Prior knowledge:
The protein is of the alpha/beta class. The chain has helices at 62-71, 73-86, 135-161, and strands spanning 16-23, 29-36, 44-48, 51-56, 98-101, 104-112, 117-121, 124-129.
Amino acid sequence: MPNPFRLLAPRPRTIERDMVALALADGRCVQVARVRDPRARRLKLSVDERGARLTLPPRASLVSGERFLAEHRDWLATQLDHYTLDVPAPLRNGETGALPLRGALLPLQWAAGRYARLHRDGEALVFTAPAGAGETALRRALRDFYASEARTDLGRWLPRQLPSLPRPPRRV
């Protein structure tokens, strides 16, 4: 039997999204995603690999959001510079010449194959991929390679550290 009080309950509001342009002090113009979230309790400005985002609570005005952006313009520029420095160049089939591994930049060789796969061959990395491999397949092979290298490093490191841990890890 349905709940009779269901009709009296307030309906959840939807999240509203749009973009706003902001001119930074150095002359750059950036697009900031403006999101009105019903769960938000305060104004929040965040930056990640996707860009800048301003979160507004339901009752905040758009003018207060623009004022908040203007007040934090310098912080936003610093954070955007931080993310642009850390983002590696995109991986391109046959074009990328080196990849980072354990603090060193190792040369990358490309080879034709039936499926995308990255493996280590001595002091170089070999990326085997079909000619029409898309970016998704290349990223997946790259992620799998780095995950296996991390497991290898952890397998070497963990036995030495186990005596100092209060209990052994159940899962890694």
